[in-house]
């Protein structure tokens, strides 16, 4: 299958993008033949000659060869000669696409050797971008010199591009020229110059940006503000917090646009040093909600206890939306100093604040919060209950588990349910003995939750006690306990007797119901040691026991009891048992297996022969659809004309056809065509048509 | 501000729009107003996803393809809404800057081809919008870091579209791995194989075709190097399958940044490297490394294994293994999958719906599950693999400095020069 997919992938790549593209995707590099330096140079020159007229839609074979040669020569002496050949190529009348390719190669492997050739392209708007593509990545002062020289000669987009590249390269020597351009009559040039200055790590550049901010107007001023923020961010990152803080303070002025003030506010907080609490509190007291919000959002980046405490003290003074945000932020900081404020917020009458605080308690709270959370989880519904429950499950500290266990036996039923759930969710293994008791509680909900919790927490050592509970229980409780026993049994390694405890309990089952309950569990565990017992039970004189045995074998995880079920279906005088056994038999036929396809087909044929009515035949056809043999398709196709079974037969044919298309293309297509012609089900027709199309 | 490919009209390509500040937050009853940028196949899917989310509405869509833009408008305008939601007539734009200039739009969803992600994300942050941006976050490591910086600076609630993080199976798998349920993690193998797309991006060799009158081809290219139009890269509306811009190096990173941005993202989550990354990258050499291999500083290896049976991620530890895909989760021993992880263990960020998580975080101003930093780091892993494959040699990576160690050539490939007038 994997090999097939790989073949498809390679074929598709060749089909889609040419075989040269496929080479880029090969995981195993092709072996290379060593060549001498002059020979390589000649070969390189010849290849370059060949690609002079290259255009975007032409074969890339020679381009790929050139790429490989450059990659091999990279860092070696011969690269210099090759680079010169590439430079000559750029000066030639080669096509745009060919030069574009060469510039891309130089962007990775080029050196200052290539600068003159590339620089000569900078002022030509047609090729300026591709020259910059290379130059922007080539290190060295020669590139910067060339860019600066070209700046005064270039126009239009070429000029903008050069300004951008000078900024990206952080060329300090360009500051003077760029500063002049901030006053350019062409606003677009001025904006680009301001932005470029903002990228240059130099005081004179920052000063030029500040000047443009103060004197500029419109787009230039806006760009300067953005560039000024960038300067401040850079200073802050370098540890020059005072200088950065001064810029942020300027930009925090009420006269600046709010989005700028927000960015500046964050910067002010992060550069405030020992005045951080003061700054944050001042911002939380601001009349501007976005400022309050950014102060809240920046708390995590500060993460100092005194700051968190100071912020938490402001909680009650904020509006509801900002209260909710601050509660979440305090939780995110994870500092327990904020717990008193969060607990107060949990009493808020605003639903969003209240729920946020309940959630925050899960992170910040401790054993003292258990009662509040249990009370809320037990008394409330919806989001409020969910928040309290989740916090109860996340509350830190071993003493929390102890408190839960201590409260559990005597709690009121609703609280008891929540305590039981928290035992499960908190993975309190020590709660198993208590849960064994609450599994017999007077309250039905407590019992069911306890049985479910035991499913997660009980271990192999608890099997006997669980079975005892199972046998003593009735109704829904017993059903849930059966599930629990199965899950816990499966925690025992397969070779260590998963069904041992159940088998041991079987003789002591006091009544038929109890025996049937154990047989059902054995079927679901599916341990081989139980198979003889279940087979024996098929011959039990009690119909109820027989019934349980048929059902248990029908649940079996492998096809091992298939013959037993077939025999029941063929020979039983009890119609219910016949039907159950046939269903089980069809189910087992559909399980993954290593048996030959012919055997599987025989199973379906046997089943179909036994099917007494339309619904049983439909069931067989439905199972047949999960097989992938040609014979299965033929069998399904045999029912396409049966008005009662037509729909199931069509669905089975379509399902099987995908796997038979390759080996039995003609017959599959004919059968699919028959489905298309005869079906009234649009979805089936579409699927069949799709398969037919794929098969063509 | 239009016609950027012709006469110079855009200062550095960008208008430095400063419009709304949604960062003040919303009360639970307030609707979050969204704009969609890029409404092709993926964008349309996202749009339908958000139309089904309570608490938000769509005010505008934008696409350089007029047909797609109009189709999206029609869908929004005719979509049945909750009676309590006030319907807005959906505006259509061809230029994302016009959409970002709308003061009433609180947040944007970006589903353009990858080569546009960083610029539009950064401009949206500057405009005060919260951002949902499709993966892969950016076309280079430098671009991805610039997005992170812009998001931090503006206080933007940012969601990267690596939505597997909001799928309980991946969450469960990573939480089990992080808590040592499979012992000490040794190896992660992942499969991103998809029949119709190349693993690594290839140069575009498609022939020129006439540009359709409904398409602004120059704007479609944006910061990417110029080349003539071809419908395989920008297919017309109604084309079947995914557009093949994903194959080509100027617009995406092949499967490495397509499925890779999903599966490497999960590998990073399971390893616990959301703010870090690998230390060494080994391209396939046909010898020791049959397939692209990453080694993290804790010794864990991540292998892109194209021969795996399923398109899944397989975590192997000293005491077990967990395999997870979009369709299944499996473990050895199987009992691991029934484990309840107690309060003292590591609990990973949990989200049940990637869209709802972002909208909830816009209200609470909390970090979204796949924020810009996470998206940046995952995209970086993908790009490192592409660079190692391109150079054909092992590389050493410093995840803190985000530079290669002792490889100037590789460092050059950490950024991509942009066509004028575009710049980050």
List strands and helices in order, with pairings.
The complex is a heterodimer of chains A (696) and B (424).
Chain A: H1 2-17, H2 19-24, H3 37-50, H4 61-73, H5 78-91, H6 96-109, H7 115-119, H8 128-135, H9 141-153, H10 156-169, H11 175-181, H12 187-199, H13 203-215, H14 218-237, H15 241-251, H16 258-270, H17 276-284, H18 289-302, H19 305-313, H20 320-333, H21 339-345, H22 351-364, H23 370-379, H24 382-394, H25 398-407, H26 413-425, H27 432-438, H28 444-457, H29 463-472, H30 475-489, H31 500-505, H32 512-525, H33 531-538, H34 543-554, H35 562-571, H36 575-589, H37 597-610, H38 614-624, H39 630-637, H40 646-660, H41 665-678, H42 682-695
Helix pairs in contact in A: 3-4, 3-5, 5-6, 6-8, 8-10, 9-10, 10-12, 11-12, 12-13, 12-14, 13-14, 14-15, 14-16, 15-16, 16-17, 16-18, 17-18, 17-19, 18-20, 20-22, 21-22, 22-24, 23-24, 23-26, 25-26, 26-28, 27-28, 28-30, 29-30, 30-32, 32-34, 33-34, 34-36, 35-36, 36-37, 36-38, 37-38, 38-40, 39-40, 40-41, ...
Chain B: E1 32-37, H1 41-51, E2 56-62, H2 66-78, E3 91-93, H3 96-100, E4 107-110, H4 117-126, E5 130-133, H5 141-154, E6 158-160, H6 168-178, E7 185-190, H7 217-221, H8 254-257, H9 260-271, E8 280-282, E9 293-295, E10 301-304, E11 313-317, E12 321-324, E13 329-332, H10 354-364, H11 372-391, E14 395-398, E15 403-404, H12 408-412
Helix pairs in contact in B: 4-5, 5-11, 6-9, 9-11
């Amino acid at each position: 299958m994997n090999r097939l997919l790989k073949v498809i992938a390679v074929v598709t790549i060749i089909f889609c993008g040419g075989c040269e593209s496929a080479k880029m995707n090969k995981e195993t590099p092709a072996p290379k033949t060593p060549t001498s330096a002059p020979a390589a140079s000649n070969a390189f020159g010849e290849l370059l000659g060949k690609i002079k007229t290259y255009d975007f839609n032409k074969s890339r074979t020679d381009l790929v060869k050139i790429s490989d040669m450059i990659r091999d020569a990279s860092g070696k002496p011969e690269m210099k000669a090759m680079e010169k050949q590439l430079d000559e190529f750029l000066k030639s009348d080669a096509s745009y696409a060919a030069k574009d390719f060469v510039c891309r190669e130089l962007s990775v492997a080029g050196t200052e050797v290539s600068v003159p050739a590339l620089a000569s392209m900078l002022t030509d708007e047609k090729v300026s971008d591709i020259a910059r593509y290379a130059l922007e990545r080539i290190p060295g002062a020669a590139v910067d010199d060339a860019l600066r020289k070209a700046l005064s000669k270039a126009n239009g987009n070429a000029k903008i591009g050069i300004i951008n590249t000078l900024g990206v390269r952080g060329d300090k020597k360009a500051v003077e020229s760029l500063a002049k351009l901030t006053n350019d009559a062409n606003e677009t040039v001025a904006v680009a110059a301001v932005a470029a200055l903002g990228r240059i790590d130099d005081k004179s550049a920052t000063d030029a940006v500040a000047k443009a901010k103060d004197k500029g107007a419109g787009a230039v001023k806006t760009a300067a503000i953005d560039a000024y923020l960038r300067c401040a961010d850079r200073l802050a990152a370098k540890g020059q917090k005072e200088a950065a803080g001064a810029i942020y303070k300027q930009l925090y002025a009420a006269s600046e646009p709010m989005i700028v003030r927000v960015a500046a506010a964050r910067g002010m907080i992060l550069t405030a040093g020992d005045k951080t609490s003061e700054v944050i509190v001042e911002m939380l007291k601001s009349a501007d909600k976005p400022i309050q919000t950014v102060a809240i959002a920046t708390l995590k980046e500060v993460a100092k206890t005194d700051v968190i405490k100071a912020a938490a003290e402001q909680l009650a003074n904020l509006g509801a939306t900002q209260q909710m945000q601050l509660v979440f932020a305090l939780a995110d900081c994870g500092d327990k100093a904020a717990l008193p404020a969060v607990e107060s917020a949990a009493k808020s009458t605003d639903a969003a604040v209240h729920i946020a605080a309940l959630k925050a308690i899960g992170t910040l709270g401790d054993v003292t919060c258990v009662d509040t959370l249990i009370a809320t989880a037990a008394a409330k519904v919806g989001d409020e209950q969910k928040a309290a429950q989740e916090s109860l499950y996340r509350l830190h500290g071993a003493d929390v588990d102890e408190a839960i266990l201590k409260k559990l036996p005597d709690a009121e039923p609703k609280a008891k349910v929540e305590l039981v759930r928290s035992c499960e969710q908190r993975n309190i293994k020590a709660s198993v003995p208590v849960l064994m008791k609450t599994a017999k509680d007077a309250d039905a909900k407590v019992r069911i939750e306890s049985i479910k919790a035991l499913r997660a927490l009980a271990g192999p050592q608890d099997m006997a006690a669980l079975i005892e509970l199972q046998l003593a229980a009735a109704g829904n409780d017993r059903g849930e306990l059966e599930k629990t026993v199965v899950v816990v049994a499966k925690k025992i390694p397969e070779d260590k007797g998963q069904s041992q405890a159940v088998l041991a309990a079987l003789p002591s089952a006091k009544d038929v119901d109890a025996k049937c309950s154990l047989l059902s569990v054995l079927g679901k565990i599916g341990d081989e040691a139980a198979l003889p017992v279940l087979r024996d039970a098929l011959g039990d004189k009690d119909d109820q026991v027989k019934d349980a045995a048929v059902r248990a074998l029908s649940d079996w995880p492998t096809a091992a009891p298939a013959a037993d079920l077939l025999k029941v279906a063929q020979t039983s005088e009890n119609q219910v048992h016949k039907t159950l056994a046939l269903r089980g038999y069809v189910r087992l036929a559909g399980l993954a297996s290593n048996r030959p396809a012919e055997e599987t087909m025989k199973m379906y044929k046997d089943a179909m022969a036994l099917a007494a009515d339309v619904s049983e035949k439909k069931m067989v056809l439905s199972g047949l659809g999960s097989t992938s043999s040609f014979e299965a398709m033929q069998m399904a196709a045999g029912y396409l004309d049966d008005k009662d079974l037509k729909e199931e037969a069509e669905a089975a044919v379509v399902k099987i056809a995908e796997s038979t298309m390759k080996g039995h293309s003609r017959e599959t297509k004919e059968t699919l065509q028959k489905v298309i012609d005869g079906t009234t089900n649009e979805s089936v027709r579409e699927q069949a048509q799709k398969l037919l199309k794929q098969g063509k | 501000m239009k016609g950027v490919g012709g006469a110079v009209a855009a200062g550095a390509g960008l208008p430095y729009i400063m419009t709304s500040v949604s960062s003040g937050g919303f009360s639970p009853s307030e609707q979050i107003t969204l704009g969609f940028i890029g409404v092709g196949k993926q964008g349309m899917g996202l749009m339908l996803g958000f139309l089904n989310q309570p608490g938000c509405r769509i005010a505008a869509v934008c696409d350089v393809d007029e047909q797609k833009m109009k189709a999206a408008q029609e869908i929004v305008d005719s979509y049945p809404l909750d009676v309590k939601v006030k319907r807005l007539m959906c505006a259509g734009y061809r230029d994302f800057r016009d959409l970002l200039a709308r003061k009433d739009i609180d947040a944007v969803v970006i589903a353009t081809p990858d080569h546009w992600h960083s610029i539009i994300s950064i401009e949206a942050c500057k405009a005060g919008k919260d951002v949902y941006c499709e993966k892969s976050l950016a076309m280079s490591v430098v671009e991805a870091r610039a997005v992170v910086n812009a998001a931090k600076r503006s206080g933007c609630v940012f969601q990267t579209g690596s939505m597997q993080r909001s799928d309980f199976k991946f969450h469960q798998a990573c939480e089990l791995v992080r808590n040592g349920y499979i012992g000490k993690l040794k190896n992660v193998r992942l499969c991103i194989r998809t029949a119709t797309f190349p693993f690594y991006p290839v140069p575009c060799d498609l022939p020129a075709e006439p540009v359709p009158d409904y398409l602004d081809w120059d704007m479609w290219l944006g910061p990417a190097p110029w080349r003539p139009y071809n419908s395989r890269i920008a297919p017309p509306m109604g084309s079947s399958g995914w557009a093949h811009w994903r194959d080509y190096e100027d617009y995406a990173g092949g499967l490495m940044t397509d499925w890779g941005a999903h599966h490497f993202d999960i590998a990073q989550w399971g390893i616990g490297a959301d703010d870090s990354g690998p230390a060494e990258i080994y391209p396939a050499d046909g010898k020791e490394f049959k397939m692209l291999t990453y080694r993290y500083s804790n010794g864990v290896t991540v292998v892109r294994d194209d021969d795996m049976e399923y398109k899944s991620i397989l975590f192997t530890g000293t005491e077990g293994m967990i395999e997870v895909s979009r369709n299944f989760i499996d473990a050895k021993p199987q009992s691991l999958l029934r484990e309840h992880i107690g309060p003292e263990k590591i609990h990973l960020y949990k989200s049940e719906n990637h869209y709802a998580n972002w909208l909830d975080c816009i209200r609470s101003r909390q970090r979204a599950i796949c924020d810009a930093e996470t998206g940046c780091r995952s995209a970086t892993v993908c790009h490192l693999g592409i660079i190692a494959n391109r150079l054909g040699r092992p590389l050493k990576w410093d995840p803190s400095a985000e530079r290669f160690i002792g490889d100037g050539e590789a460092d050059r490939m950490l950024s991509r020069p942009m066509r004028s007038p575009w710049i980050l």
